[in-house]
C-alpha cells in the first residue's frame, strides 16, 4: 500500500520515502462545481513597463502561428504554438516553480535561510534556482545523468548545487533522483522538497495562468490543445480549465515510447527502455496527472521528435527544445481531423538553449541514427570507406568480459591487469548487460556510492555508445568523434544484444593504414 509506505519510518518528521505516485487528494470534478475551491486563485494582469525583478517576466508568453510545417503535413486548420521558451527561465516550468515557492512562503513552510531541494529533469530546477537566486534561498537540484550538460551548467551559474543520479534507476530505487532528494531533506535542517509530482500548485499554475492566457489570446476560440506530459501538471491544469470553458475542445496528451503515462495501457507496449527526449514521460503516474481530461494520447519516438524540433528551428525560426518536436509531431497527426475554420494550440515547453550539444548538433544526431550521414557530410566529401560494413574491421571478439554479479574489486583488477579502460558486463545468457569503465568506477568509489565488495551491476552503465555489426564505418567514425570507444553488437530476434566487440580510434586507424597500404 503506497499510502502506508509513505507513512513508515519517520525521521525528524520526514518519511523515509514519499512515493510520487500516491493517489491524488484533489476533489476537482468537471461536473461538480459545488465544492468550494480551497486554493488561492490568480488573476492575469498586464506587466508593468519596468519590472521589479526577473520573476515578473515568468509567463505571459506569445502564441505564434506555424506556417510552413502544417502545409507540408496537409493540415488545414490554424496551428498556434504557445512559446514557453520566452519565459524568464526558458521553460513552461518557470510558472510552477514560482507558484510552489510563493505558496510555501504564504503557508509558512519555507522561510529566509531555508534550503530548497528538488528532483527534476532540469527545467523545474532552473525555475526554482532562478527564484532562489532572486529570493536568497539555497538551492539543491537532483537530476539524472541523462539531462543535458547545458541544464547542469545553467543551474550552477544560478548558484544551485547539482547532484546527478543514474538514469537507469527506477523512481523507487534508492539511487533515483526522487529518493536522493528526500534523503537530503532528512539530513539538511530547515530544508524542503517542494515535490512537483504531488504539489497541487503545479497544475494550479497552469490552470490560473497558462490556460487563461491561451483562452484570452484566442478570444475563446480553441478546438484542440496538444501538450507533452511529464509530471502532468501542464496537462492537468490546462486540460481542466479548457474542459470547463470549452467542453468541445479536444485535449491531446503526448507521451514518448518507453514511458507509461498514456492510456489505454496497451499504447505503452514497446521494446524501448531509454529515450533521448527530455522532460516528458515517466515510469510511474505522478499524483498531479489527471488523465481524465485527456481525450486522446499519442506516442512519439526520438527520431521523429528531434527531427521535428530541428524543422521548427530551420523552417519556422522557433528556437525550441526536443519535447516541443514531440508535441508538434503529435499535433500534425491529431489536427488532420480539423478543418480550415478550426484552431489547434500546441505547447512548446522549452528552448534550444538546453540542447546545444545534443539534438542541435548534427553529429550527435547522426551518431544515434536520427539523421542520415548524407545530411551531415556531402556525398562528394565522403571517404572511400564510408559505406563499408563494420564487419570489415573485424573487431576483437575474444574480449574479456565480467558478469553483473562480480565484485567491483574484480573489475578494477581486470582493467589494471589488462591495461584497458572498459569491460563489457555480460549476463549468464550472453546478453550485453552494460559497461564498466575506469572513469565511472572511480567516480562512484570516490563519491561513496559503491564499495569494492559490491556487485558490479550497481555501477554498470546501461547507456553507452553501441552500433550494429551491419552498420557502416561512416557512422562508426561519426560516433568515435564523440566517444573513446563504441560497442559493436548483434541484436537478436528476441531483442537480446550479443556482444561482437569493442572498437576504438586505434582499431579504425589500424584498419585504414593496412587498407591504404594494400591499395598502393
Write the layout of secondary structure elements.
Layout: H1 2-7, E1 63-65, H2 68-72, E2 78-83, H3 93-106, E3 115-119, H4 123-135, E4 138-144, H5 149-157, E5 161-165, H6 177-187, E6 191-193, H7 201-217, E7 224-228, H8 233-245, E8 250-256, E9 296-300, H9 302-316, H10 322-334, E10 343-348, H11 362-367, H12 408-418, E11 422-426, E12 432-437, H13 438-447, E13 466-468, H14 473-480, E14 485-491, E15 497-504, H15 505-519
Parallel strand pairs: 2-10, 3-4, 3-6, 4-5, 7-8, 7-10, 8-9, 13-14
Antiparallel strand pairs: 1-2, 11-12, 14-15
Record keyword descriptors for this entry:
520 residues, alpha/beta, Rossmann fold, CBS-domain, 3 domains, six-stranded mixed sheet, four-stranded parallel sheet, 15 helices, 15 strands, globular, disordered N terminus, CBS_dom
What do you see in this structure?
This protein has 520 residues and is of the alpha/beta class. It folds into three domains: 2-19 and 92-193, Rossmann fold (3-Layer(aba) Sandwich); 58-90 and 203-355, Rossmann fold; 375-519, CBS-domain. Helices cover 32% and strands 16% of the residues. A six-stranded mixed β-sheet has the order 1-2-10-7-8-9. Strands 5-4-3-6 form a four-stranded parallel β-sheet, with helices on both faces. The chain has a three-stranded mixed β-sheet with strand order 13-14-15. The radius of gyration is 25 Å and the shape is globular. The N and C termini lie far apart (72 Å).
